[in-house]
Design a protein that fits this description.
This protein is an alpha/beta fold. It has helices spanning 37-48, 65-68, 89-94, 104-117, 207-219, 243-251, 253-262, 288-301, 317-334, 338-344, 362-365, 412-415, 427-430, 464-482, 494-508, 539-554; strands at 2-4, 15-17, 27-33, 53-56, 124-125, 130-136, 141-146, 151-159, 181-184, 199-203, 222-227, 233-235, 270-271, 274-275, 357-359, 371-375, 381-384, 388-391, 394-397, 400-403, 418-420, 449-451, 489-492, 557-560. Strand 3, helix 1 (37-48) and strand 4 (53-56) form a beta-alpha-beta unit. Bound molecules: NADP nicotinamide-adenine-dinucleotide phosphate.
């Protein structure tokens, strides 16, 4: 029997005899895992260098997290003009966004446009999961195995697997007994789903739920939202792109990008459509009036601009509570039923210690007749039955259950790959207790392996696009410096890794992030060690540290060329 398995590239002659597949055993300079924005830019840089590269992607197309998160209402919460590649002025001039915050379909169009514009498809294999990456300490290269049977080698391996890509569904009792439809926001089906005439349950109230609930509520006969912890959400104030604004940004895009990079905390600077420096005052040192003006201005501007508000909001509980109470009062104004308003107003953790949400009519949705909120804070979901969800002994019968229950963030997607470094040590072993990576880019014991948007960098609190570009350019320079010769190898020293982990701890120890059970802390996944997964030193400090990492001919690394 002649057996052929699906692979679109003719060069991949994957024909086997008698059921035994002949595997793709090519050798590359670089293998990249993941066709999100970081992975694709990495591939472009490697192609520009004239090196051989293969990118593997689990999805059937490019776009990374945006490929999978197609739930109703999915859109980015950073302004489109800022959440886009900045490295190529022609690209940023040529592309035009249709809305202030790009929707998931538009982000997919952008990702596909990028893949075509920079000729990435030929060196890309979709529908292919990388299952293992094992370092050969004699040959000094990575041996990479995929779900399609490929076994390829590469001098360098870059894991661009994304920090919000491994969706998580809690292990609810009776999950398999439920006979209705189930959906996971982070693996939403491609076909149009309409909940017309249905009774629907949404479990979870994080960003994905906050975006999808207002849309599902308009379709469903009845929507019941099961909330364990309420979110703080700010109106996004999305709308069609103001063409005058776009023209203004484009006329000075390089300067806008420079300010995003060097004069912002989180990589975004737009406030009421003007580039604006962060507020470096303390929230408790100013008058009530000055504080209120800042908070109201940002409320009217919309979105995540509170990350650029007073400097001590994430380090001082008293300062933090001034903003938390401001937002709680906004929630009380919006939600008509006072009991529901109190349930929706978070009181158990500091604002921004979980990621802020940006919404369109989220709180207003609870004023609808066909929407009810069930708090499961003190009475968790007991089980799912054939017909629905049981809480406090009451069975809520529903036609569909939507799990908006989040991600095994930052480390989840990496841990799905069996990564083994020198002496066969697994990354899981090396990361026992907490992930460790010098500059969030490389781990001791794992030469020639890079992480993009991985742990120990500042992915959680900065615009991911800017971080990705910065990291990709660092990795590109590193590969160029060390080269792809047989003896080329680079790995951070244990001392450098220890010092970086200590620095991460020192910078983050006073942060209020520790006071919430969020994905920032790995605290949303039962059994995952509680540890701060991101560097909180800000973009500029991270940039400087990365430059130090390159200094003295990569002095903090052991290397051969
Ligand atoms: P999330 O913020 O982690 O929210 C998950 C929700 O599920 C939480 O409300 C959580 O409650 C609940 N949950 C988890 N396990 C549960 C259980 N056993 N029983 C009851 N409830 C449970 O996840 P997400 O909404 O997918 O968002 C994750 C991140 O993705 C965001 O923070 C953001 O960074 C990013 N995101 C961005 C956008 C955007 O750009 N617009 C959109 C969506 C997501 P607890 O809080 O009590 O754990």
């Amino acid at each position: 029997m002649l057996l052929r398995y699906v692979n679109s590239d003719k060069n991949d002659s994957t024909i086997g005899v008698r059921g035994k597949l002949k595997k793709n055993q090519e050798t590359f300079d670089v293998v990249i895992v993941g066709a999100g924005f970081a992975g694709m830019y990495m591939q472009h840089k490697i192609q520009q260098r004239g090196l051989s590269v293969r990118l593997y992607e689990a999805g059937s197309g490019v776009g990374g997290t945006w490929y999978w998160n197609r739930y109703p209402g999915a859109r980015v919460d950073v302004e489109s003009v800022e959440y886009s590649y900045s490295f190529d002025d022609d690209l940023q001039q040529d592309w035009s966004w249709s809305e202030r915050y790009a929707s998931q379909p538009e982000l997919m169009r952008y990702a596909n446009y990028f893949a075509d514009r920079f000729s990435l498809r030929e060196n890309m294999r979709c529908d292919t999961k990388v299952t293992a990456a094992v370092y050969d300490a004699e040959k000094l290269n990575w041996h990479i195995t995929t779900s399609q049977g490929d076994e390829v080698s590469a001098k360098y391996c870059v894991l661009a697997t994304g920090f919000l890509s491994s969706g998580s569904v809690p292990d609810f009792k009776g999950l398999n007994d439920y006979n209705g439809n189930t959906y996971l926001t982070s693996k939403w089906p491609k076909e149009d789903i309409n909940f017309k005439d249905q009774k629907v349950a949404v479990i979870g109230t994080g960003s994905s739920a906050v975006q999808s609930i207002p849309i599902i509520a308009k379709q469903a006969d009845h929507l019941t939202v099961f909330q364990r912890t309420p979110s703080f959400s700010i109106p996004a104030r999305n709308g069609p792109m103001d063409r005058e604004y776009e023209k203004r940004v484009k006329s000075d895009y390089p300067e806008w990008r420079r300010r995003q990079r060097y004069e912002s905390r989180a990589g975004f600077i737009a406030l009421n459509f003007q580039p604006t420096a962060p507020n470096n005052k303390s929230a408790i040192d100013v008058s009530d009036e000055e504080r209120l003006i800042d908070y109201e201005t940002r409320w009217e501007s919309g979105g995540l601009c509170y990350y650029n508000s007073f400097v001590d909001l994430l380090t001082n509980e008293k300062a933090n509570d001034t903003l938390a109470e401001f937002v709680r009062n906004k929630i009380r104004e919006k939600v008509k039923d006072p009991e529901t308003a109190e349930l929706l107003a978070p009181k158990d953790y500091p604002i921004m210690a979980k990621r802020l949400c940006a919404d369109t009519n989220y709180y207003e949705t609870y004023n609808r007749e066909n929407v009810s909120l069930v708090s499961i804070k003190d009475s968790p979901i007991e089980k799912l039955t054939k017909k629905g969800v049981v809480v406090g002994g009451h069975e809520y019968e529903v036609d569909s259950v939507i799990f908006a229950t989040g991600f095994d963030a930052v480390t989840g997607a990496i841990k799905n790959i069996d990564v083994r470094g020198v002496a066969g040590e697994s990354l899981d072993e090396h990361w026992e207790g907490a992930p460790r990576a010098y500059l969030g880019l490389m781990s001791n014991g794992f030469p020639n392996l890079f992480f993009l948007d991985g742990p120990c960098a500042n992915g959680a609190l900065v615009s991911p696009m800017l971080l990705s570009e910065h990291q990709v350019e660092w990795v590109d320079r590193c590969i160029n410096e060390i080269g792809v010769g047989l003896g080329a190898e680079i790995v951070p020293t244990l001392e450098a890794e220890d010092a970086w982990m200590q620095h991460m701890h020192d910078v983050g120890k006073d942060s209020l992030l520790h006071l919430a059970n969020s994905w920032y802390m790995g605290a949303n996944i039962p059994g995952k060690p509680r540890a701060l997964l991101s560097y909180l030193g800000g973009l500029e400090s991270y940039r400087q540290q990365c430059s130090s990492g390159e200094a003295n001919d990569y002095g903090n690394f052991v290397k051969t060329r």
